[in-house]
């Protein structure tokens, strides 16, 4: 009889400089790293069927605690069998804690040691989100990777304000750990990630990493980046932030990013990513290719019979021309959003696959240099 899959097991198979490739084994399947997680904010990866998302090569997707708690409600999802059954996605799901959305979407909010009181951006109803409630919601959803509840301040805030925020997030991280561990059956099958904060400050990042490591998590996220600081500042922070986190656990850079962001972050030791960019861009007529981003609204595509990308194996590239996609986008046809989104998601997964292969071959630096040269061309 085959042994039961582990709750959570991370293994590094090869390294090349700081870049590394490996696998996360979980009960609902294996996650190959570096991994890109398509964002399914409201229990759907926009413009895509779940089986089509899986066909792009995605091993795991992301769901959003804030949006799902407001609509349709975590308790309702639980009554309907959990998020996997609700949205017909059988593989692993990571759910974020809701903290970032509370801060960014709710105009009326009150932050205290207990948590955040806020009004819904949908109907103005009042809610309280705490570390304990965030863990409860993610448990009701049945997520496989649960994120600790944290606050994400802007990187341009004064250092003492960022320090206070980081320290609060570390206290919330301990409460998240305790509440998650109290989840019994769910905790026995799921994993919990802590989130490093500290903006662009090396010392604050180190203090955050030390606090999280003392608590103990299955994986560690790097939060508080990709919030307007720019790629140069983000990379400069990653140069020290990844090394502050345990080497035997996966490192997850939240909310990133553009294709060249992913390559630069993998070069600096990041294992996991999520971003709305491939789906949002797909709905707005922008396609990502190995030669750089392409605007399908541009008139130069109106009579171009070539595919979006000659190197891409996706159904969009093998079946449809740039001219047709240009027509769909200009006409506002939903098929345009569907086809371009499918291409973008497969491009991102092909990029991750190519990086994994380059790391295994010990040629990642050459791959990254070639990618940057061709992508910026």
Characterization of the model:
With 377 residues, the chain is of the alpha/beta class. The chain folds into two domains: 17-275, Queuine tRNA-ribosyltransferase-like (TIM Barrel), CATH 3.20.20.105; 276-377, no CATH class. Helix content is 44%, strand content 19%. It contains 16 helices and 16 strands. The chain has helices at 50-55, 65-70, 74-79, 83-87, 99-105, 131-141, 159-181, 185-189, 202-215, 231-241, 259-267, 277-283, 315-319, 322-331, 334-361, 364-375, and strands at 9-16, 19-26, 29-33, 35-38, 61-64, 93-96, 109-111, 116-119, 126-129, 145-147, 191-196, 219-222, 251-253, 272-275, 286-289, 292-295. The protein has an eight-stranded parallel sheet with strand order 4-14-13-12-11-10-6-5. A three-stranded antiparallel sheet has the order 1-2-3. Strands 7-8-9 form a three-stranded antiparallel sheet. Helix 11 (259-267) runs antiparallel to helix 16 (364-375). The protein is globular and about 60 Å long. It starts with 8 loop residues before the first strand and ends with a helix. The mean pLDDT is 96.
């Amino acid at each position: 009889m085959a042994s039961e899959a582990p709750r959570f097991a991370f293994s590094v198979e090869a390294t090349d400089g700081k870049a590394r490739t490996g696998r996360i084994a979980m009960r609902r399947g294996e996650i190959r790293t570096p991994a890109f997680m398509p964002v399914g904010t409201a229990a759907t990866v926009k413009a895509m069927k779940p089986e089509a998302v899986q066909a792009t090569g995605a091993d795991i997707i992301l769901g959003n605690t804030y949006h799902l708690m407001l609509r349709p409600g975590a308790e309702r999802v639980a009554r309907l069998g959990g998020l996997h059954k609700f949205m017909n996605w059988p593989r692993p799901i990571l759910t974020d804690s809701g903290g970032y959305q509370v801060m960014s979407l709710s105009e009326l909010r009150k932050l205290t040691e207990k948590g955040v009181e806020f009004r819904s951006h949908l109907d103005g109803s009042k809610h309280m989100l705490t570390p304990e409630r965030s863990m409860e919601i993610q448990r009701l959803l049945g997520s496989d990777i649960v994120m600790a509840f944290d606050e994400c301040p802007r990187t341009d805030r004064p250092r003492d304000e960022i320090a206070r925020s980081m320290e609060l997030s570390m206290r919330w991280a301990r409460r998240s750990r305790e509440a998650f561990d109290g989840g019994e059956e769910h905790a026995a099958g799921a994993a919990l990630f802590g989130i490093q904060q500290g903006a662009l400050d090396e010392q604050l990042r180190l203090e955050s990493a030390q606090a999280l490591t003392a608590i103990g998590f299955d994986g560690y996220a790097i939060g508080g980046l990709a919030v307007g600081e720019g790629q140069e500042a983000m990379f400069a922070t990653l140069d020290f932030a990844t090394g502050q986190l345990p080497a035997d656990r996966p490192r997850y850079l939240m909310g990133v990013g553009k294709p060249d962001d992913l390559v630069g972050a993998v070069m600096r030791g990041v294992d996991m990513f999520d971003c709305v960019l491939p789906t949002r861009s797909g709905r707005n007529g922008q396609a990502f290719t190995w030669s750089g981003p392409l605007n399908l609204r541009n008139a130069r595509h109106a009579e171009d019979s070539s595919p979006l990308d000659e190197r891409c194996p996706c159904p969009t590239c093998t079946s449809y021309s740039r001219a047709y996609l240009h027509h769909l986008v200009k006409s506002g046809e939903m098929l345009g959003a569907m086809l371009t989104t499918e291409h973008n998601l497969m491009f991102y997964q092909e990029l991750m696959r190519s990086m994994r292969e380059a790391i295994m071959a010990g040629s990642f630096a050459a791959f990254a240099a070639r990618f940057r040269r061709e992508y910026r061309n």
